[in-house]
Amino acid sequence: MHERIKRLRRDGFIRATVAKLDGAKLGRPLLAFVHVETTSWAVTRQPLLLRDFVDVEEIHTVTGESAMLLKIRTRDTQSLEACLSAFHLS
């Protein structure tokens, strides 16, 4: 099995190995997915700057009603509201 995994990595089939973090042990048990709606790409680029915020785990571009989906992990609902206010997304 180890040799197969090495070959898959070498050949580019495995791009990354990830760690699954325990939000509660990190002191951030609340996980929220936030849809971001924008009117143009110029406005859509602004949320990309959020990747530097510690509470933002992932940013995804999506199709449909929303332009982006943010994965945010925080301490509690009050922290989430503060985070959204800081982003001007609430």
Automatic annotation (TrEMBL):
Residue ranges constituting the Transcription regulator AsnC/Lrp ligand binding domain according to the UniProt record: 50-85
> Which Gene3D superfamilies does this chain map to?
3.30.70.920
Signal peptide from the UniProt entry: none
Pfam families assigned to the protein according to its UniProt record, in alphabetical order: AsnC_trans_reg
InterPro entries associated with the record: Dimeric_a/b-barrel, Tscrpt_reg_AsnC-like, Tscrpt_reg_AsnC/Lrp_C
SUPFAM superfamilies hit by this protein? Dimeric alpha+beta barrel
Tell me what this protein is called.
Lrp/AsnC ligand binding domain-containing protein
State the taxonomy lineage: Bacteria, Pseudomonadati, Pseudomonadota, Alphaproteobacteria, Hyphomicrobiales
